[in-house]
Specification:
Elements: H1 2-24, H2 28-51, H3 57-77, H4 79-82, H5 86-102, H6 110-134, H7 139-167, H8 170-195, H9 203-261, H10 266-290, H11 293-310, E1 315-319, H12 328-347, E2 354-361, E3 364-371, H13 384-393, E4 398-402, E5 409-416
Parallel strand pairs: 1-2
Antiparallel strand pairs: 2-3, 3-5, 4-5
Helix pairs in contact: 1-2, 1-3, 2-3, 2-9, 3-5, 5-6, 7-8, 8-9, 9-10, 9-13, 11-12, 12-13
InterPro entries: HATPase_C_sf (IPR036890), HATPase_dom (IPR003594), Sensor_HK_TwoCompSys (IPR050482), Sig_transdc_His_kin_sub3_dim/P (IPR011712)
Domain Histidine kinase/HSP90-like ATPase: 335-418
EC number: 2.7.13.3
Length: 420
């Protein structure tokens, strides 16, 4: 992903600064509509792709943005091929449909969703192929077919997303409402332009650009709500864990100790005192689970060094943050990232060597753990890596796992130094 991020941005800037500026410099209003919509798709898509690589919506938005900018260039450079937004109907609209199907799960789920997505992509190629076989292929024919069929397609898609909305629970409706609403508005704008006429002047471009621009905005809002929901759930799980540990351990010991200390039997009193001491030890262990003792006493550098010393495989530590005082949430998250990644390297990756790099630059701290093991690690829901991602994201950071089979695993966490 990192290798593709800047080339895609360069391609977007090239399309803007080159062909679009050359073709639309006499019409700044239309240039602004086209450029803003395309850049929004690409930039939001890149951010979502980086933050949630397991969800296809980021990749789809990037592709939509590039297709949009190419279409804007083609409508002037090759008007016979790109007339009246037909290329957007053929490629761009099916991608938006695909994004609407995968936004909640990251991928197409089940045969029905795959069938709908495939129908969206195949709709225009089948019509064009049929027109070519009949020998009646023309832009006017395609526009007439679009005007006749898009209302029916719109009704079908509206029904599809209404059913999905009704089946979703209250929390899911709140999370994905911005994206679904953006899809609905975009569909309305598309239907108006396709059914009535594409028209002339600025209003068709402005209307279509408005509908399309709302989709990356809605996607960003929905993904933000998803992250907030994950953080709330992570906090709730942690609170329940602490409550359970206190109830099952410390509370039971203190109740037993209270009963023993009320007795006149010296042996029971001694046992009660022992229970109190054990309860104190349990509390100490509980607190260490929240903020590890090594981290409290020696800071992140000392705690990571202790992890390296205890590891069963050689661990090389490159520490470049020993001179910094990190915020407590960042230090704790960095510690647990290191500990979980090193532990996984020992237990699952069959690594022969592990390297840990702690670095800080540009107001961010980066923790990278790399091993030479078998690779193939996945951040599955409920697993250790998934929990680490939630912990890092609670600090406003990102966690990425690169694990190609046979090439080892790299876990990289980036967090802002200003996290609180």
């Amino acid at each position: 992903m990192e290798l593709l991020r800047w080339p895609l941005r360069v391609a977007t800037a090239t399309l803007l600064c080159g062909p679009l500026l050359a073709l639309y410099w006499m019409d700044p209003w239309e240039l602004a509509c086209l450029a803003v919509t395309g850049v929004l798709h690409v930039e939001v898509g890149l951010r979502l792709w980086r933050e949630r690589p397991d969800n296809r919506i980021g990749l789809l938005l990037v592709a939509c943005g590039l297709v949009w900018l190419l279409d804007a260039w083609g409508r002037v450079a090759l008007p016979s091929l790109f007339a009246a937004g037909m290329m957007l109907s053929i490629v761009h609209d099916p991608m938006h449909l695909h994004a609407g199907l995968v936004v909640s799960s990251g991928r197409l789920r089940g045969r029905w969703e795959r069938l709908v997505a495939a129908a969206g992509y195949a709709y225009w190629p089948v019509i064009v192929a049929g027109a070519m076989v009949a020998g009646t292929l023309s832009t006017g024919l395609l526009l007439d077919l679009r005007a006749l069929s898009y209302p029916l397609v719109g009704v079908f898609l509206a029904g599809l997303f209404i059913v999905r909305y009704r089946r979703a629970d209250r929390a899911e409706r709140h999370v994905y409402a911005p994206f679904w609403a953006a899809l609905a508005v975009n569909g309305l704008c598309t239907a108006m332009l396709s059914t009535v006429t594409y028209g002339s002047g600025h209003w068709p471009t402005a209307l279509y650009a408005l509908g399309a621009a709302l989709i990356p905005v809605g996607a960003a809002l929905s993904m933000h709500r998803v992250e907030r929901r994950h953080l709330r759930r992570a906090r709730d799980r942690e609170r329940r864990r602490v409550e359970r540990d206190v109830h099952d351990g410390v509370q039971q010991r203190l109740l037993a100790a209270a009963m023993m200390l009320r007795q006149d039997d010296p042996a029971l009193v001694a046992r009660g005192a022992s229970e109190v001491e054990q309860a104190i030890a349990d509390l100490r262990d509980l607190v260490r689970g929240m903020n590890p003792a090594a981290l409290v006493c020696h800071g992140l550098s000392g705690a990571v060094a202790a992890i390296a010393e205890r590891a069963a495989v050689p661990v090389l530590v490159d520490d470049r943050v020993s001179h910094l005082t990190l915020p407590e949430p960042v230090a704790v998250a960095a510690y647990f990232v290191t500990m979980e990644a090193v532990t996984n390297s020992q237990k699952h990756a069959r690594a022969g060597r592990v390297s840990v790099t702690l670095a800080a630059s540009g107001g961010r701290v980066e923790v990278t753990v790399h091993d030479d093991g078998i690779g193939g690690a996945l951040a599955v829901p409920g697993g250790g890596l998934h929990g680490l991602r939630e912990r890092v994201e609670s600090c406003g950071g990102t966690l990425r796992v690169s694990s190609t089979r046979g090439r080892g695993t790299a876990v990289r966490a980036v967090m802002p130094l200003a996290a609180s």
